[in-house]
Amino acid sequence: MFVYNIKFNGKALVKLLFVIVAIAVTIYFVVSAWKIYNNSFKVKDEITSPDIMQLTAENYTNVLKSVHDDLDSYIGKKICFTGYVYRAIDFKETEFVLARDMIISSDMQTLIVGFLCDCKDSKEFEDESWVEITGEIAQGSYHGDMPIIKVKEMKKIDKPENDVYVCPPDDTYVPTSAMF
Q1: Could you tell me which residues come within 8 angstroms of residue 76 by beta carbon, excluding any fewer than 6 positions away?
Q2: Does residue 5 form part of some domain?
Q3: Fewer beta carbons under 10 A from the terminal one: N or C of the chain?
C-alpha cells in the first residue's frame, strides 16, 4: 500500500490560480478586442429603408411639406396613410384628397390638408368617410404640377378616436427623402 503525502503550499496555490485567471481574462479581452476591431472597419454600404413609408398624425404635415418641396426625390416611393375622403368640385371622377384637419390656431381652427389621390374605385367611398390607402407617389397636375398618390389599395376604416388632427410642420422638420 502506498501512501502519498502531499503538501500544499497555500501561497503557491493562490499564485497559480491567480496566473490561470489572469491568462483566461487576457484571452477573453484579446478575443473581444479582435472582434470589435475586425467589425469596426467593415463598410456597410447597404442602407435598408422601409418599402412603404407610414404616415402618422405626428409626421403627416412634415412629410406632406417635404414631398411638395422636393417631388422629384419622392416619385415612385410607396406610401401608406389614413384620412378622410375630400372632393372638390373640379376634381376628376377618380380624384379625391385623402385629407386631415390641421390645427392652425390655439382656438382649434383647422385647415384641410392632404395628398391628391387617384383611384379608379374611389366612387365607392363617400365624402368624409375614413379610409386607409397604400399607393405610389407620382407627379400629377392640378392647377400646376403637384404630387399625386396613385392608389393601389384602399379600404374603409373607422374614424380614429385619437390622432384626428395634425399639427403644422415643424420649423425643424427633417426631409424624409433619405428614409426611402
Answers
A1: 136, 137, 138
A2: no
A3: N
